[in-house]
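All the exercises in this workshop are built on plain-text protein records. A record pairs a protein's sequence with a compact description of its fold. Read left to right, the backbone structure tokens trace the chain's path through space. Once this layout is familiar, the rest of the handout is easier to follow. Here is such a record, shown just as it appears in the course material:
>
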Amino acid sequence: MSEKIWGGRFSEETNLDVEKFTSSLQDDIHLFKADILATKAHLHQLRDKAIVTHEEAENLEGVLDQLQKERDNGTFIPDDKLEDIHMNIEKYLTDKLGDTGKKIHTGRSRNDQVVTAFKLTILNRVDTVILLLKELLVSLINKAEQNKDVVMPGYTHLQKAQPIRASLYFLAYHEMFLRDLEKLKFFKKFLREVPLGAGALAGSPYGIDRFKIAEELNMRQPTANSLDSVADRDYVLDILYCLNSIMLHFSRLSEDMIIWTSEEFGFVKLSDAYTTGSSIMPQKKNPDVYELTRGKTGRVVGSLIGMITTLKSLPMGYNRDLQEDKHLFFEAVDTVEQVLRVNIGCLNTLEFNRELLSDKINKGYLLATDIADYLVLKGMPFREAHSVVGKIVRYCEDSHKDLVVLSYDEFRQFSDLFCDDILSKLNVFCSVDSRDSYGGTSLKSIETQIDNARLNMAENKGV
């Protein structure tokens, strides 16, 4: 006869390979603290419904507290023969209290027990990510503030397009990561629906008050349908999507920094504390933080795809496939927290090579659009102005000249609308400050964006 807690109808011991294959202990050990909290909430209902006496409830809660202390000081070692952490907790109670410990699972299933502990744990980890995102957002605002006077090339298709203030770049990522923050906050409302009391799939016959359980666990409300309670993993997909969005944004930022720190660009200098060297080439200073961030994005993408694939075509109700959810989630959230921490430090310490940028910003044809805009303001239709400036650029290419060095007479070769004031327009600061529409790169617009961002952060307190 099997010695498993569920082994009453089994006549043979579980095959050792099956035990190893089905064990989730390595992943659900993360649920320990949440399971203790949820077990106490369940216990209070058993007490209120006289399924356990007040004395039994007091003893059970005391042993749960003792177990938590042993876990905290490292003296509690889970038994991997017991499948998961939930069975370990129940076995501990039974060993300490005998038949009283055996009462703790009355009116609940591992199905609703596990998803409750998982939701509570995800909430805790999401709050950690939210706090780190807020720290990142403040760093991006500070970086924008510090570099208002830096003008750099803006790119499309990785080709120089128009000059922008470096602040605009950092504020762009501020907007991207702010959306990630808001999405995480939105999806928390689904995490705060508690499944405990749903049983295996059909509910509980013991009169358990699920609304009181939700209140005790600081959750918004109980889940509305017992079958959906144990079958649903949409909340895992929601959070994994948000974590993917964070990583995709970091991957794009990383690509920029890898390019900009190269000798060919040289726009940015990274701190020695956030770079590494070569085992053979003494001159190397490698942007490993950004390369690894870009690489680790694949892990988080893989977790989302894995979860989607796991859920595809599952029949309604609990299926053991769902055990995969914890490994996929913890792999992703561990990676994102690590990436956030190291990238905040890297961002705070990077510096622009201002002298080099000042030289490079006047090379090439970054002001081509400004010249077209000049002609439009003189009365020329934009499409005609576009064509005229295209011919000017071709002339510069053939003459091996930059736009900013052209003379008034050279401009007049292409249109009589050019006046001597065109030369005053060949200035990148004039260009950026002309882009004064809401959200643009002018100094006034940048300062408005910074003010709005700081106001948002001041109002966006807590988790």
User: Anything to note?
Assistant: The beta strands are 151-156, 159-165, 193-194, 221-222, 268-269, 351-352. The first helix runs from residue 16 to 22.
